[in-house]
Specification:
By secondary structure, this protein is of the alpha+beta class. It contains 1 helix and 10 strands, in the order H-E-E-E-E-E-E-E-E-E-E. The strands form 3 sheets. Strands 5-2-10-8 form a 4-stranded mixed beta sheet, with no helix packed on it. A 4-stranded antiparallel beta sheet has the order 4-3-7-9. A two-stranded antiparallel ribbon has the order 1-6. A hairpin with a 3-residue loop joins strand 3 and strand 4. The relative contact order is 0.24.
């Protein structure tokens, strides 16, 4: 991947964060302290395809939080988003060298937790 491509990925991630914060400011919400108050929803999904023992993949929510995950369900519970906030989830290659693809990695939070951001590693 070229330097220019990495630069645009970082800039687009930054833009998603800024837009999310602006939208949250308009709605009187934003990032919640994790208390689970009304209008706070988490982003998550399922990781699959990791086959080696202790194999993991790094998954990031718009530069806010990075999780190191094995196969199974996950959630960015430390950063709940307000209704109407935009999100972007990215994944890097696994510790076993697999290529991991994110499905439904960008979107706008509705009135429920986002649970369909799935990561498949091959």
């Amino acid at each position: 991947m070229g330097i220019q491509s990495r630069f645009f990925r970082k800039v687009s991630g930054f833009c998603v964060v800024v837009l999310s914060l602006l939208l949250a400011a308009c709605g009187g919400g934003g990032y919640d302290s994790g208390t689970g108050g009304m209008g706070s929803y988490t982003v998550g999904g399922t990781v699959s395809g990791l086959t080696a023992v202790n194999e993991t993949v790094m998954v990031t929510l718009a530069g806010l939080q990075t999780l190191t995950l094995p196969n199974g369900s996950y959630s960015f519970s430390s950063y709940p988003l307000a209704m109407g906030a935009m999100y972007q989830v990215t994944a890097t290659s696994s510790t076993g060298g697999k290529n991991c693809v994110v499905a439904n990695g960008t979107g706008t939070v509705g009135t429920t937790n986002v649970t369909n951001v799935d990561i498949t590693c091959t």
